[in-house]
Amino acid sequence: MEKMTKGVWLDYPELKPDDGERVLALVKGYGKHFQVLTYNETHQCWDDSEGDDFEYELDDVLMFFRVPEHKPVDRKYDMREALKKAQHDITLSDKSLQEFAKLIVFVGFEDGLVPIISELHGEVFFELEGSEISAERAIERMEKVGYVTPDDLI
Q1: Is 2 within the bounds of a domain?
Q2: What is the three-class DSSP state of 118?
Q3: Total structural domains in the chain?
Q4: pTM above the 0.70 mark?
Q5: Could you read off the pLDDT of 38-86 as tens digits, one per residue?
Q6: Exposure of 121 by Cβ count < 10 A (0-12 exposed, 13-18 middle, 19+ buried)?
């Protein structure tokens, strides 16, 4: 195995990849182009990116760049961890919204019903029976008169 530095273009055939190594190669032929290939020392050729089928003769490649190794991802673990984090973030967000809602005073609502705080696509608002008021508008009403009434909802 030859020592090669990752992140630089290497001249072929002066330097060679390891047998079975996937590389980004500068290929000559019908105009120069780049292609991911697999070096096949056993059969003295360049195979396709999966290492299965013959693609080019050895002298068709001018230079190559080492492709970082692909490590399989445990998607089951990643999905569960992502869901767990999302649920944690939602819980924190809900707690913050409830703390904010405690600061808003609602006056004049029948039967003790008051709007509940909600969030949709980053927009925070209070809603009650199909009517709503944005959190910003609720703050403005609190700053101006100290409370929110049913007439403030749209």
Answers
A1: no
A2: strand
A3: 2
A4: no
A5: 999 999 999 988 888 888 899 899 999 887 776 666 667 778 888 898 9
A6: exposed
